[in-house]
Write a structure and sequence with these properties.
The chain is mostly beta strands and 131 residues long. Helix content is 7%, strand content 48%. It contains one helix and eleven strands; from the N terminus they run E-E-E-E-E-E-E-E-E-H-E-E. A hairpin with a 6-residue loop joins strand 4 and strand 5. The longest helix is centred in the last third of the chain and has 9 residues. The protein is globular and about 40 Å long. It starts with a strand and ends with a strand. The model has no long low-confidence stretch (mean pLDDT 94).
Length: 131
């Protein structure tokens, strides 16, 4: 079965850090682009970051640029999101997603296309940042 499983969410104070992990099974990252999305209560889902594992190209939303870092370990079929200098507005359920179309993932993270129709989604992990 093709699936993604996120982990690493939790409670953290503003200014703290968390590292989210997204473990893939049933496919290899080399053939897919991976993205992180988040949805805060009562707000629209937004793209956070994405990576094309084949060449390591990355993209970050302006809201997280300079604070978050996406990376991948192709040998482990795992993508990470290192989140530093967390703010209360970062509170959200964070989802990872994968799609063989790198352009699809990038466009979805950038907000230029819908994202829920991406091929594979994780279950989400909750990040709560207290002020």
């Amino acid at each position: 079965e093709v699936q993604l499983v996120e982990s690493g969410g939790g409670l953290v104070q503003a200014g703290g850090s968390l590292r989210l992990s997204c473990a893939a099974s049933g496919f290899t990252f080399h053939d897919y682009a991976l993205g992180w999305f988040r949805q805060a209560p009562g707000k629209e889902r937004e793209g956070v970051s994405c990576i094309t594992s084949s060449d390591g190209s990355t993209y970050y939303a302006d809201s997280v640029k300079g604070r978050f870092t996406i990376s991948s370990d192709n040998a482990k079929n795992t993508v990470y999101l290192q989140m530093n200098s967390l703010k209360p507005e970062d509170t959200a359920v964070y989802y990872c997603a994968a799609d063989p179309g790198w352009d699809v993932i990038w466009a979805a993270v950038a907000g230029n296309r819908p994202s829920w129709d991406l091929e594979v989604w994780g279950q989400g992990t909750l990040v709560t940042v207290s002020s």
